[in-house]
Write a structure and sequence with these properties.
By secondary structure, this protein is mainly alpha-helical. The protein has 7 helices and no strands.
Length: 141
Amino acid sequence: MWLKNTLVLDLAATAIGVALSITSGIAFSRMNVPLKKALLYMLLILSLFPFTIMVIPPFYFMFAELRLVGYYSLIIPYSAGAVIFSSYLIKNAVDAIPKDFEEAAQVDGYTRTAALFRVLVPMSRPVISFAAVVAFMGALH
């Protein structure tokens, strides 16, 4: 029973955290986001704090104030904690990929979204898998 609960919690938090990290990391890397520099510094500073310190206040808020009991009260803070580190990591990996690959895919007829999912995501798959392992270990801890 405890193994099932742990796996459901960790896999859900990892999937949500990595999906949000991919979108935010690519957005920070390729798009003109308002206050991009300030947000990146905030992510960098938040990644310096221990994970448990950042998880306890949202968990307490959801448990005590919103009366969320169950998987949701742990999945949301764990996935948010994974986004903090992984989005900065994925942003740096996507920065290393030249924009020429994305432009060549658009010349070949792909839309910007298709070029994103057929060029950038497969090229950054090693970093995404590392982010998934780190997110899983963070939720497991």
